[in-house]
Specification:
Structural class: mainly alpha
Strand content: under 5%
Strand order of the largest sheet: 1-2
Largest sheet: 2 strands, parallel
Helix content: 40-55%
Number of helices: 10
Radius of gyration: 23 Å
Number of strands: 2
Shape: globular
Length: 239
């Protein structure tokens, strides 16, 4: 039987990764570009085009409920102008690990990297005055796409989707009783569900071997609760 083009591409990626070494580290960029080219091809097969039709991408994703309708503050003419800013060559700047992380964690289905960055930039600039927002949007886009600035995970992942949570970091404290303990675990699950990171203060939990309800050495300390928090974060993963 014949070999598919996908198998050829996967083999090329594997070979590039095998060639990567401390002496020749740039092979990881070769693998990253091959991965991005696979994404381009898959996207073209799925929707009929790669880059060049940003306004159409926005329209389709709004119709599917994948993009927040706030992007429609921009006119079709403004979206066409924004389309001219897209530089596909910037997709080639990622090594393999970065390319895989970007595609698996941050991109929506049938979405390309520069489209995601441009949409985030437009939404960030949408609060500016109508006569000035495109100027700021272009500055934001180029800074994001060229990795001169880095967006927090919830912003890059959630800004362009409906009702996405943009908060990054949360801190909570767990008191030394079951109501507070499992309340904190529940809160951590909801935070993780919406893409946030959470730190939990467990210093109030009694030490290992402490008395519990008149029973000596009944407390297991903080480790069992840390395990539950860790398992919760794994089970309720943002992606």
């Amino acid at each position: 039987p014949g070999i598919t083009t996908r198998e050829i591409q996967d083999n090329l990626i594997s070979c590039a990764l095998d060639l990567c070494s401390p002496e020749e580290p740039d092979w990881r960029y070769v693998a990253g570009r091959l991965h991005i080219w696979s994404l381009w091809k898959d996207t073209q097969v799925a929707r009929g085009y790669k880059y060049g039709y940003y306004a159409q991408t926005v329209h389709d994703k709004i119709q599917k409920g994948e993009y927040d309708r706030r992007i429609l503050i921009y006119t079709p003419e403004e979206l066409e102008i924004a389309n001219t800013w897209i530089n596909p060559d910037w997709d080639a700047d990622y090594d393999y690990a970065g390319a895989v992380l970007l595609t698996k964690r941050y991109l929506l289905g049938n979405e390309l990297p520069q489209e995601a960055f441009l949409t985030c930039a437009l939404l960030i600039a949408s609060v500016e005055s109508p006569d000035n927002r495109l100027t700021w949007a272009r500055k934001f886009y180029e800074a994001i796409a060229r990795r001169q600035i880095s967006l927090a995970t919830p912003i890059l992942a959630n800004l362009r989707i409906p009702n996405g949570s943009l908060a990054s970091c949360f801190i909570t404290a767990m008191d030394d009783n079951l109501e507070s303990i499992f309340g904190s675990i529940h809160d951590a699950a909801r935070i993780s569900k919406n893409g946030g990171g959470v730190g939990v203060n467990l210093s109030r939990i009694r030490a290992t071997g402490s008395w519990v309800m008149g029973k000596k050495n009944a407390s297991g300390g903080v480790v069992p609760w840390i395990k539950l928090l860790n398992d919760t974060a794994i089970a309720v993963n943002q992606g």
